[in-house]
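Supplementary Note 3. Input sequence used for the single-chain structure prediction.
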Amino acid sequence: MNYSTILYSLLFYIYGAISLGYIATYLLTGKKLYECGTRNVGIANSFNTGGKVAGILAVINEASKGILPIVISKYFLSASYGEMLLFTYCSIVGTIFPVFTRFRGGKGRSSFSWALFLISSYGFIISGGLWLITLMLTKNAVISYNLFLLSLIPILYFVTGKKEVLIFITFIIPILYFTNKAERDDFAYYGILTGKEN
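The predicted structure, written as discrete structure tokens, is reproduced below.
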């Protein structure tokens, strides 16, 4: 690993750690997202705490954290496939553990989903379909997402056949699993599935 790889890894982490939803919510309401609702510095909490403007900014911001590392790596940095995945990983880690909000961030699901789609659209469709089916059957976002995470390694390895993807997924799953807790479940807290907000 050379110095430029380390530098870009750090820069993508810093970019991932910037939350427009948090900033907009604080400017509009004076509230800190990590102290409100599910305490997630993410999309659902931005909409419900900060309003539409904060929510829309959060959607764009979180999506870009999964998209930009891949696009920039491919078309501007001439990075290797492994470096591209490393930069994407760093961006998602920044989303979940942002230094600017004392490492209290979001769950990284939106950023990861966009990255997954660009890495393997077929893998995204298959694993996403399984997640949706289990979510509808169980009505439990935590259980369905854990099953989704477990399905990623065999599905992506089968679809892509790339060891770099297998390494990326192996390292990202524990972090996503760590954040997938019932008390931080936006689906349950805001009654997305039941229609009853806590």
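Residues 52-75 form the longest helix (24 residues). Residues 3-189 form one domain.
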